[in-house]
Specification:
Layout: H1 16-21, E1 25-31, E2 41-47, H2 51-61, E3 69-75, H3 77-87, E4 90-100, E5 103-118, E6 123-125, H4 129-137, E7 142-157, E8 165-167, H5 168-177, H6 204-213, H7 231-240, E9 249-252, H8 253-257, E10 263-265, E11 267-269, H9 289-292, E12 299-307, H10 317-327, H11 341-348, E13 358-359, E14 368-369, H12 378-386, E15 407-410, E16 413-416
Parallel strand pairs: 1-5, 2-3, 8-11
Antiparallel strand pairs: 4-5, 6-12, 7-9, 7-10, 7-12, 13-14, 15-16
Helix pairs in contact: 2-11, 3-4, 11-12
Length: 418
C-alpha cells in the first residue's frame, strides 16, 4: 500500500555494502520445476545489465512466507523482448537466487534447467521497443512497463589513475573506429572492449551507450574476441587486461557498483555539455544524483515486457505481480512484500522513479521534468544507497509540520510535493 511507504524515519536494513561486496556462491544444477515445491515459479529472460537488481529481488522473494522462485535467463535485451512476444519459449540453464542460510548478507546464485518449450511470464531489458526494432518487435498485445532508472558507464581498471573522463565525441571515435579513431590512450583494438556483434545479439547497454555518443554501428575487429554474455564478461575482460593504461569498456552502473574495488567509472561529457559527470555526485558515493537530475546523459529506464489481454490488462498473473512489485503499486494483502522495493533498488544501484527528477519518452531523447505519481523518495533513496543517515540538503521529519510550505514528509524526509 502507498501509505506503508511514507515513513516517519529510516528503517534499519542489512548493510548495503555487505551485500554489495559479497561474491555470489555457486550451487549444483537441478530441474527448475523441482524447486520451491513446483509453485510460484517465475520464468523471466532478461538483460545481463540487470542481474544485480534481479539477484537482490530474487533472494528476497525466495525468503517470503509464501516464497517465489525467480528463474532468470541472461541474454541481450532485444532477444529477451522477442521471447515474450510470443515467438519463442525458454529452455536450458538459468539462474535463481536465495540468501545464504549461514550468512544473510550473502546471496547464493544457484542454477537449474528447463527442458522442452516452456512459456515465459515476462521479460526485462534496458530499452524502448523502438530502440530494438519497432517493425520486428512492436505488438499491440505486448505491454511495456517501466521500472527503475539505470545508468551506463565507461570503465577502466581502478589501478589506472591517468584517465578520469571521456567525451561523447571521443567515445564515438573509440567505439566506432577502434584504434583508427586515434583517441589517446586507446591505440590498440585488443584493449577496446565492446559487446559481441554476433547475429541475434543486441545488448541494451550497447544501444544506450550508442544513443549517448551518437553512434549507430560499433566497430568490430573480428580478430579480437568480444563478450558474448554482456556486462559481467565485459567487466572481467577489463579487469584481466594486461595493459590497463590502454583499456576501456562499458557496462551498466549497477554491475559497476558491485565491482568498484577493481573497476573505475569515467566521468562522461555528453553531447552539447560543457562538463563531464559521474552518475554519482563523486566517485566515493552511490547517490546517483547526476542520474536523478539529468546531468548524466547515458541513462535509461528498466523495461518490463509482458503479454496483454485484448482489454490491455496483463495476461499472466505472475507477470502482473512482478510488475506491481517493481513499480510499487498496491497489491492484494496476501501479495504485499515484507520489504521495501526501494531498498532493493538502492542496494542494486538503480534509481526508483520516486527519486527521479527527469524522464525521457524515447532512448537518448531530451530530458523532461518528472514528478512522481508516488510519494517522493529522493532523500530516502540516497540515504539507503550512500549509507548516510541524513544526506546533504535533506531534512528529517515525522510529519508535514517539520517541512516548508511546498514540501511534504515522505519516507521520513521533507520532499517537494508532487
Amino acid at each position: 500500500m502507498v501509505s506503508s511507504r511514507i515513513r516517519a524515519g529510516l528503517i534499519g536494513t542489512v548493510s548495503a555494502l555487505a551485500l554489495m561486496t559479497s561474491p555470489p556462491a555457486r550451487a549444483q544444477v537441478g530441474d527448475c520445476f523441482f524447486q520451491n515445491g513446483g509453485k510460484n515459479i517465475i520464468i523471466m529472460p532478461g538483460s545481463t545489465s540487470l542481474v544485480p537488481v534481479v539477484r537482490f529481488l530474487g533472494a528476497k522473494l525466495a525468503k517470503m512466507s509464501n516464497p517465489y522462485l525467480l528463474v532468470y535467463f541472461k541474454m541481450a535485451s532485444c532477444d529477451a523482448m522477442a521471447r515474450v512476444n510470443g515467438t519463442e519459449y525458454m529452455s536450458g540453464t538459468a539462474e535463481f537466487y536465495k540468501e545464504d542460510p549461514n550468512d544473510p548478507t550473502k546471496i547464493i546464485t544457484d542454477s537449474c534447467t528447463i527442458s522442452g518449450r516452456v512459456p515465459i511470464d515476462l521479460a526485462v531489458g534496458d530499452t524502448f521497443f523502438e530502440t530494438c526494432d519497432a517493425t520486428r518487435y512492436r505488438n499491440p498485445l505486448l505491454g511495456d512497463f517501466q521500472g527503475p532508472q539505470q545508468a551506463f558507464v565507461f570503465i577502466t581498471q581502478r589501478s589506472f589513475a591517468y584517465t578520469t573522463y571521456i567525451t561523447a565525441e571521443e567515445g564515438r571515435d573509440v567505439f566506432g573506429c577502434g584504434a583508427k579513431g586515434q583517441v589517446p590512450p586507446y591505440f590498440e583494438d585488443s584493449f577496446i572492449y565492446s559487446y559481441s556483434s554476433a547475429p541475434g545479439l543486441t545488448y541494451g547497454a550497447q544501444l544506450i551507450i550508442g544513443k549517448a555518443i551518437n553512434l549507430i554501428s560499433f566497430y568490430n575487429d573480428s580478430s579480437v574476441p568480444k563478450s558474448h554474455l554482456g556486462d559481467d564478461d565485459e567487466a572481467d575482460a577489463v579487469v584481466a587486461s594486461i595493459m590497463p593504461d590502454k583499456t576501456i569498456g562499458y557496462i551498466s552502473a549497477e554491475v559497476y557498483d558491485q565491482r568498484r574495488d577493481v573497476l573505475k567509472a569515467l566521468a562522461f561529457r555528453g553531447m552539447g555539455q560543457t562538463f563531464a559527470y559521474l552518475p554519482d555526485s563523486n566517485s566515493s558515493t552511490r547517490d546517483k544524483r547526476n542520474v536523478r537530475d539529468g546531468h548524466y546523459t547515458a541513462q535509461a529506464p528498466m523495461h518490463m515486457w509482458a503479454a496483454l489481454n485484448p482489454d490491455g490488462s496483463v495476461a499472466d498473473p505472475l507477470a502482473r505481480k512482478v510488475i506491481d512489485w517493481m513499480q510499487g503499486n498496491p497489491v492484494a494483502p496476501e501479495d504485499q512484500l515484507p520489504f521495501d522495493i526501494n531498498d532493493v533498488y538502492a542496494q542494486a544501484g538503480v534509481v526508483p522513479k520516486c527519486a527521479m527528477k527527469v524522464s525521457r519518452a524515447v532512448d537518448g531523447g531530451p530530458f523532461l521534468p518528472y514528478v512522481s505519481e508516488k510519494p517522493p523518495c529522493g532523500c530516502y533513496f540516497e540515504a539507503k544507497a550512500s549509507g548516510k543517515a541524513v544526506p546533504f540538503g535533506c531534512v528529517q521529519c515525522t510529519d508535514n509540520t517539520g517541512c516548508s510550505a511546498k514540501q511534504i514528509c515522505s519516507y521520513g524526509f521533507c520532499e517537494l510535493a508532487w
